[in-house]
From TrEMBL:
Localization annotation: Cell membrane
Gene Ontology molecular function, alphabetical: gluconate transmembrane transporter activity
UniProt key word Transmembrane: yes
Protein's membrane topology: Multi-pass membrane protein
Native source organism of the sequence: Krasilnikoviella flava
Protein name: Gluconate:H+ symporter, GntP family
Any one annotated GO CC term: plasma membrane
Alphabetical UniProt keywords: Cell membrane, Membrane, Transmembrane, Transmembrane helix, Transport
Family assignment from sequence similarity: Belongs to the GntP permease family.
Origin: domain of life: Bacteria
Amino acid sequence: MRTLLQAARDDDDTLELINQPWSEHDTQVLVVTAIGIAIVVLLITMLKMHGFVALTLGSLFVAIGSGIPLGDVAGVFETGVGDVLGTVGVLVVLGAMLGKLLADSGGADEIVDKIFRGSTGSLPWRMALIAFLIGIPMFFEVGLVLLIPVIMLAVRRSGLPAMLLAIPALAGLSVLHGFVPPHPGPLAAIGNLGADVGITMALGLLIAVPTVIIAGPVWGRFAAKLVPIGAQGGGGGIVAGDTGGSGEPGTVTTRNPTFVLTLVTILSPVILMLVRAGVEVWASPDAWFFPFVSFIGEPLIALLIAVLLAMITFGTSVGFSLGTLGSKMTESLKPIASATMIVGAGGGFKAVLVEGGTGIAIGKAAVAMSLSVLLLGWLIAVLVRIATGSATVAIVTASGIVAPLATGLTPTHLALVVLAIGAGSLILSHVNDAGFWLVKEYFGMTVGQTFKTWSVMETIIAVLGLLFTWLLWLVV
């Protein structure tokens, strides 16, 4: 069965669907989507239902209400769950293993010791800088699971509110995910619009710096007051780096890994992915090294290599026995089981929204408005993001829709359209977004607390992105 998600990735199919007249079905899917989202929120907040069950029920309602044939409903949902668990879920598992070894070996202490050199007041800024650097080549989910142990240990060491340090790190990762190649969304928009990679990357980094500052350390101060939780969160979240030997031989380290060795280990997937991105942009696919570099730079393979390296640098070399290593890696999976399944259900919810036609209906409404190509691209991305929960789908759909309108623009203006679309794709992350549930579960927040902190931060990023691209549009 060909899904609308696949159609959204094809410019011609998307434009054909968007240009069709408004129908009763378009109105129907928008109403059903709004009700479905409300059902999920109410089931979790009022009935205290587990997120996986709530998202599953909400998905079934949206699927049936959108007109997906009953025989296809389960398959669409299961496909969405499988797509997310096959990508995000695997990365979370590997990241949790790496994070556990990083924390229990003392590697996280080495990083935090370096971070703490200086005033505590500048700690949020340093967290934002670290996340910004890691976020250049790395997917958001990968960067998050790598940074969680560092964030949590920094919170415990400093005694500062969790959101004061977490929001700057989250902002650094999120901004880079939406604005800067080689992330998949910006690259797809560059391809659809025929923009220049170098110009887009340069302007993206230029816009990213002030956006991270405002959405990160500045907003983090307000978020910490709105949700004053500590290292373990408000709802018993995943606390990375819980140590505690079992008394068995080899459960206590004899020495900490050095700072350099720690940095090499946790940055190894970053380096591998960055090299892959550079090779895919600048090298010929016919080059002898192209397949190998592409393979080891895949997020899954890069993280797996990092875990294998960590078994030595954070394991046997610091005194852990092989049995202890196996036990610790098993322990790392227990706290993330619930979060991983919730993330999977979020993928199923997104799949039924896309398959039901919500994104297409939103595209029709946006195109009917007489707006500049910059604002139109941003608005379509905003609406598709809110409806489907996927930043990548929002970018691909919006860039495909506005591509005919961008003909004749200068390379600089084309790059700005790409960045505006990328900004819009980040807005208002909520219950249909895997990132929402990852942040909620990792920091042990309630749904309401996640909306107050994470969702607001994402909206700040989207609005600032539009503002900065518009200002540059006027002066270049």
